[in-house]
Amino acid sequence: MEERRGFPFGDSVSSIIARGEAALEGGDPVAAGNWFVHAFRLGSGAARVHLEQIAPVLERLLDDPREAAGASALLGGMHLISDTQHERALALFRQAAEAGAPDGMRGLGFMLAEGVGTTANRAEANGWFRRGAELGDGYCAYNMALAARDGLGMRRNAKGFLAYLHQAADYGIPEACALLADQYNSRDEEEDAFTWYLVAAQGGHVPAMWVVAARYEAGLGTAEDGVQAVRWLLQMMHRGNGDGFHEALRIARGMPADDVRRAGELADRTADADAILHVVGTA
User: Would you tell me which of 39, 61, 116, 237 could form a disulfide with 111, CB atoms 3.0–4.6 Å apart?
Assistant: First the structure.
C-alpha cells in the first residue's frame, strides 16, 4: 500500500496526476485519491474530476477492514473540498482517526479546530494533531506549530513552535515552508530564507512565488536569474492569480526572446510567454 503524508516537492501537476492514474491502474484507489488531492491543492481542475470518478469505489472500500481507514479519511477530505455533508465528513474522519490513520487525525482536528460540522474545540483538535504529527503527518505538525505559536488550545511555546514548524517544513508543507522562510528572513539569513521560500513556491504557495521571483530578479539569497524570475511570476497563473503577468512583462523587456520562452516552458505557460513576446515586440 502506497502512502503519501508529506507534500510533493516541486512535482508538476501533470506528474502528480500521472502517479494517481498509475496507482489507480495498479489497484490502489486510496493512494490514487491522495495523489489527486495533492493535484487539486495545486489548482488542477482535472484532479476534481478524477476524485468524483473514484468516489463510488472508495464508498465500497468502507466495508473492507484493510482499506476502510484510508478510504474514510479520503472521502472525508473530498466532502470538505466540495463543502458538502459536513456531519458525514466528521464521522468519516473520526472513524479513520480512531483506526490510527494520520490523515484522519488531520481532518478531524481541522473540523474540531474550525468548528465545521461540530462545536469548535481546539484543545481536542490539538490532541489529534499531536498524534498525527507523531505518526509523521506534516499538516498535523503545522497545525501544532500554529497552536504553540499563538496559544490555541494550549500555552504559547516558542520552542515547540519551531520544532513543529521544522517538522512540517521537512515534510514539504508549503505554508510551513513559507513560515519557516519568514523566520530566517527576520534574522537576515537570506540563503536559508530563499531555500524555504523556493520549496513553498514549488508546493503552490502563491505569496512565496512572488518572493522567489523578486529574489531571483534581485539576486537576493541566490544568483540573479531573470528566467527563473519570469518563470515563477507566470507559475502563479496556475493558481488562478494573474497579477504576476505584468511583472513578468516588465522583466522580459530586457531579456532575450529565447530566455522568455524558456521561462514559459519551465512554468508550463508557453502561450503566456508568447503573449509577452508579442507585446514587447521581440521575436
Answer: 116
* All three cell numbers of 142: 503545522
Closest CA to 11 of 46, 47, 35: 35
For residue 60, count other CB atoms closer than 10 A to its CB: 11
- In this model, does residue 6 exceed pLDDT 60? no
Number of H helices, E strands in the chain: 16, 0
The topology under which CATH files domain 177-280 is 1.25.40
Cell of 107: 481532518
Quick one: CA torsion of 105, 100, 3, 18, rounded to 10 degrees?
Answer: -50
Mean of the pLDDT values across residues 22-28?
94
Query: What is the Cα–Cα distance from 144 to 128, expressed in whole angstroms?
Result: 10
Q: CA angle at residue 146 from 142 to 152, to 5 degrees?
A: 130
Instruction: Check whether 238 has a pLDDT greater than 90.
Output: no
- Residue 8 is predicted with a pLDDT of 66
In this prediction the pTM is: 0.87
Q: 239: Cβ–Cβ under 8 A, 6 or more apart, which residues?
A: 42, 43, 204, 206, 209
**Among 219, 211, 202, CA closest to 244:** 211
What distance lies between CA 200 and its chain's CA centroid? 8
For residue 246, pLDDT over 90 is answered with yes
CA–CA gap between residue 50 and residue 35 (Å, rounded): 10
Q: List pLDDT tens digits, range 73-110.
A: 999 999 998 888 999 999 999 999 999 999 999 999 99
The answer to whether residues 279 and 255 touch, using CB atoms and an 8 Å cutoff, is: no
Chain-centre distance for alpha carbon 275: 29
Domain ranges of the chain: 177-280
